[in-house]
Amino acid sequence: MNIVSKLMLVGFAIVAFSCDNDTAKETTSSKTNSTAALAVTPKKFLFDATKAETAGNADWVLDADSNPQRFPTPAQANITATTPESFWKGGLSSWGVALAKLGHSVETLPSGTAITYGGSGAQDLKNYDVFVVDEPNIRFTAAEKVAILNFVNNGGGLFMISDHTVSDRNNDGWDSPAIWNDLMSTNTIKTNPFGITFTLNNFSETTSNRLSATTNTILNGSQGIVTQLKYSNGASMTINATANTSVKGLIWRSTSTQGSSNIMCATATYGTGRVVAIGDSSPADDGTGATGDTLYPGWTELASHSRLHMNASLWLAKL
Q: How far apart are CA 287 and CA 12, in angstroms?
């Protein structure tokens, strides 16, 4: 282990013991797992910027700059355990910095780049462990749909984040829940491969209605216990276990039964890969980004938001 890695390990241990009361209640095993995650083979996370993720008032990228580039700047090699999220300038910078602090690498798929799988390009999905797409505002092409489904089928992790219906930021007639549904319903491989459908609705609420399974590592993972989820205008989901027997809801609307509808966070496996879906982009938003964008500090608004996204990221990467 080099000097930087050792400093990251020590720094993270210090951060772990200065957490809030909910995290302090975690078991010794959870804390051990969190520290051990620094020693495993680093995983590669690719954040999409090809689907108008910066259109309108959106900023769903690691580093906005003038146009998001493959490698956020300054270089992530300079990130230490005490680096603030402002190290990069993007609405998802907190997420990216947090992954880098655990020793993982993050990149952006720049606008104008095709989403491919099995090709020879440097940013072909085969070169990554997890693909994050936060609120796409341009439909996936037929070839991109095939690439994404094959990526997951062959072991990749897909993080699908939607927003509410009528949230078309680039005025092309498509918004993110409809775009995700189009990927899953209109492709040449399989209809509803993940067993997840976004409902074309729009609501805001905070819920504690979560799956009680203590062994679920997204809700009870190395990065902390997830107790709440707040939607600030988002869309729910329905699941279909006939289409995919592995699909399950993790978090539901506050007054809903824990059934197949009114779901706010869901997971599934497909082939040897994994999928996580959330119906609102606000929880991942750290409130910073390009000058002029009005963003929302969802990442820090509830401690559970960062825990949910980080635990889910590690689950998708099979850690």
A: 23
Is the CB of residue 170 less than 8 Å from the CB of residue 138? yes
CA nearest neighbour of 231 among 194, 258, 201: 201
Q: Could you give the CA distance from residue 314 to residue 319 in angstroms, rounded to a whole number?
A: 5
Question: Is the separation of the CB atoms in 13 and 35 below 8 Å?
Answer: yes
> Which of the 8 DSSP states describes residue 123?
T
Amino acid, single-letter form, for residue 215: T
Structure tokens at 175: 């918004």
Helix or strand (DSSP H, E) at 120:
none
Can you tell me the distance from the alpha carbon of 11 to that of 13, in angstroms, rounded to the nearest whole number?
5
Q: Which of 41, 47, 61 is nearest to 131 (CA)?
A: 47
Please tell me the distance from the alpha carbon of residue 315 to that of residue 274, in angstroms, as a whole number. 8
Confidence of residue 40 (pLDDT cuts 50, 70, 90): low
The pTM is what? Answer: 0.88
Q: Are 153 and 125 in contact (CB under 8 A)?
A: no
Burial category of 138 from C-beta neighbours within 10 Å (exposed 0-12, middle 13-18, buried 19 and up): middle
Condensed to tens digits (0 to 9), the pLDDT of residues 134-171 reads 999 999 999 999 999 999 999 999 999 999 999 999 99
Q: Would you state the structure tokens that stand for residue 267, as one six-digit string?
A: 């997971």
Indicate if the alpha-carbon torsion angle 52, 45, 120, 116 is positive or negative: negative
Q: Which of 48, 60, 102, 97 minimizes the C-alpha distance to 76?
A: 97
Q: What angle do CA 179, 180, 181 make, to 5 degrees?
A: 90
Strand 196-198 to 237-239 pairing:
antiparallel
The answer to whether residues 219 and 259 touch, using CB atoms and an 8 Å cutoff, is no
Q: Could you tell me if 265 and 159 are in contact, meaning their C-beta atoms sit under 8 angstroms apart? A: no
Q: What three-state secondary structure class fits 203?
A: strand
Residues 6+ apart with CB under 8 A from 217: 311, 314, 315
